UniProtKB/TrEMBL annotation, chain A:
Domain (4Fe-4S ferredoxin-type) ranges: 245-274, 276-305
The protein's name in its UniProt record: 2-oxoacid:acceptor oxidoreductase family protein
Entries under SUPFAM superfamilies matching the protein: 4Fe-4S ferredoxins (SSF54862), Pyruvate-ferredoxin oxidoreductase, PFOR, domain III (SSF53323)
GO molecular function: iron-sulfur cluster binding; metal ion binding; oxidoreductase activity, acting on the aldehyde or oxo group of donors
Keyword Metal-binding: yes
Pfam families, per database record: Fer4, POR
Organism: Rhodopseudomonas palustris
Keyword tags: Iron, Iron-sulfur, Metal-binding, Oxidoreductase
UniProtKB/TrEMBL annotation, chain B:
Protein name from the UniProt record: 2-oxoacid:ferredoxin oxidoreductase subunit beta
Biased composition range(s): Low complexity: 141-151
Xref: InterPro entries: 2-oxoacid:Fd_oxidoreductase, THDP-binding, TPP_enzyme_TPP-bd
GO biological process: cellular respiration; small molecule metabolic process
């Protein structure tokens, strides 16, 4: 089924549109994220849905140079008449971000007084934001908390969509969790949403994507009805875990082959007087696990403890 | 990256009373065993539903260290035993661990017929180019000019490309990896375990004490580092560029086809006969 016929099939039995008349001015949705997350898929679903409703739709995207890991954005505009395919600064009605820093980057495009900001708290840290290889080292990644952002935006939701999708068994369904969240903002009917979503996802993943959609939709409904205290908890800052590495070496199993000593990228290990591998520079260890993987005698085990766990152990 | 890693502890899958294992310092077989256990862990294969069959040799000994149903069989015959086991118990995941001498010399016949039948099995061949356990005799995969106890002036026989052999014999899944890349090896073994047919995986391992010492290849860490310069990664498999020597072996998934699986075909034929 190609996309044209998908849209035609949806057209055949769609209900008359309730907010058709209200959209004399185009409705602007900006979808941003990182290559490979499914930004284009979200915009396709939205465009097909709006088109099936009889709206004029214009969509514009940048994805070619991004590949996996680069910035991707997609403008979707729909209404009775749409002239330009791109959304100007301060004109987006809804901003959906599949990645935290990408969401912040595009915030100026959102309408200051009425815009809705829906953002996954997923953090994809680009390599050039890492200043050194030490565990827990500072990096050039946004430090804004969700609370600070919500003070700037009229309506903001920081939703941990990737974790929700992971719990469903497929982290790639995170974009559909966000579609579920988006469905509470737009006045398309629920069956239409589900029909469009299922027509765009691979057949094998329809069940998980339907569940993801429900999850995202319910999350927003709950966030809207929550008391302010709960609300603050829901909008908590994305926690960046600081890890520290700790090596557990089983001396009795070590056969002094020196592979760990010679292959450690940070040169943290040496053989002691008994020719047993020993950690001599724990502060340099980045927890890369190379020693654990390459130890043919299973004598090394790398533990990556979060800062919280370290504090707990010290107590 | 870090979030999913901590859950795998190889020691959960080992018979700790057998440790430390008998392999020499720096032997690559330990890394291959880790990759296999890691793959089994990630696929959440129940240990009661896992049967590891192995033959004789350094690689054959590995089954003894796995805390699962293990079967240490006669020299060259693990594939024959495993064929019987997989046919009688199609509910089991049968994994064969074998070495280059075990699989290609004494068991060469069993290998080609196992490939031809395409029974659902995973055969992990650890290739260290030598008979390490018996004192370093030449094996079918020993490279030309290499020194062993039986080729004191250098090997003059051409060696086998085990993956090409398995592909030609009709194996459903054929792959090769080096011990240096443990996570890649794990991914390859995972793909092999999920393949609905005969999966042949060759792991290029280091024999540091015998092969390395006889051929003056340096310490075990130097041998691990050497793997990087001598292997051609799968991304460059079709490359004819100069940086790779003509003797380099390609790694990664080398063949994948979906021929009918032997066990299912045999059961269907038996059911059809019973229905008559």
């Amino acid at each position: 089924m190609n996309e044209q016929s998908k849209i035609a099939a949806l057209n055949a039995d769609s209900e008359p549109v309730a907010f058709n008349a209200a959209l004399a001015e185009p409705f602007n949705v900006l979808i941003v994220g990182v290559g490979g997350q499914g930004v284009i898929m979200v915009s396709k679903v939205l465009a097909a849905l709006a088109q099936a409703h009889g709206f004029e739709v214009k969509q514009s995207e940048v994805h070619g140079m991004a590949k996996r890991g680069g910035a991707v954005f997609s403008h979707v505009r729909f209404g009775q008449r749409v002239w330009s395919p791109t959304i100007a600064k301060g004109e987006a009605d809804v901003l959906i971000a599949l990645e935290w820093a990408e969401g912040l980057r595009w915030l100026p495009h959102l309408k200051r007084d009425t815009g809705v900001f829906i953002c996954d708290t997923k953090r994809i840290v680009p390599p050039f934001a890492c200043l050194n290889r030490k565990l827990g080292a500072k990096m050039r990644y946004s430090t804004e908390t969700a609370e600070q952002v919500s003070a700037y935006v009229s309506e903001a939701y920081a939703i941990d969509a990737t974790r929700m999708a992971e719990e469903l068994g497929n982290d790639r369904a995170a974009n559909v969790v966000l579609l579920g969240a988006l469905s509470t903002v737009l006045e398309f009917s629920l069956p239409e949403w589900e029909k469009t979503v299922t027509s765009f996802v691979p057949k094998k993943t329809i069940a998980v994507n339907t569940a993801a959609f429900e999850l995202g939709r319910n999350w927003i409904v709950e966030a809207k009805t929550a008391t302010p205290a709960d609300d603050a908890a829901a909008k908590a800052a994305p926690v960046h875990a600081h890890y520290s590495a700790r090596l557990e070496i089983t001396d009795a199993w070590c056969k002094s082959c020196e592979i760990c000593v010679k292959l450690c990228p940070e040169r943290c290990l040496t053989l002691n007087a008994d020719r047993i591998a020993t950690m001599t520079a724990p502060e340099k260890c980045t927890g890369c696990r190379l020693c654990e993987w390459l130890c043919p005698d299973f004598a090394i085990r790398v533990h990556l403890d979060t800062e919280a766990a370290v504090m707990e152990a010290a107590r | 990256m870090f979030r999913d890693a901590p859950h795998f502890d190889v020691r959960d899958y080992l018979r700790k009373e057998m440790m430390p294992h008998f392999l020499c310092p720096g032997c690559g077989h330990g890394m291959a065993l880790r990759a296999l256990l890691w793959a089994l862990h990630e696929l959440k294969i129940d240990r009661d539903k896992l049967a590891v069959v192995s033959g004789i040799g350094c690689a054959g000994r590995l089954s003894a260290y796995i805390d699962a149903n293990t079967f240490h069989t006669t020299h060259g015959r693990p594939l024959a035993y495993a064929t019987g086991l997989a046919l009688a118990r199609p509910d089991l995941h049968v994994v064969v661990i074998t070495g280059d001498g075990d699989c290609l010399a004494i068991g060469g016949n069993h290998l080609i017929h196992a490939c031809r039948r395409n029974l659902k099995l995973t055969c992990l061949m650890l290739n260290n180019e030598i008979y390490g356990m018996t004192g370093g005799q030449v094996s079918p995969t020993t490279s030309e000019t290499r020194l062993t106890t039986t080729t004191p002036h250098g090997n003059t026989e051409p060696n086998f490309d085990a993956c090409a052999l398995a592909t030609a014999a009709g194996a459903g899944f054929v792959g090769r990896e080096v011990t240096r890349h443990v996570p890649k090896m794990k991914e390859l073994i995972k793909d092999g375990l999920q393949h609905p047919g005969f999966a042949f995986i060759e792991v290029l391992s280091d024999c540091t004490e015998v092969y390395g010492r006889k051929n003056d290849m340096g310490s075990s860490s130097e041998m691990v580092l050497r793997q990087k310069s001598e292997m051609r990664p799968s991304a460059y498999r079709d490359s004819v560029d100069e940086p790779f020597r003509s003797t380099d072996l390609p790694t990664g998934i080398l063949a994948r086809n979906h021929r009918p699986e032997y066990g299912a075909a045999l059961r269907a034929a038996a059911a059809a006969r019973a229905a008559k």
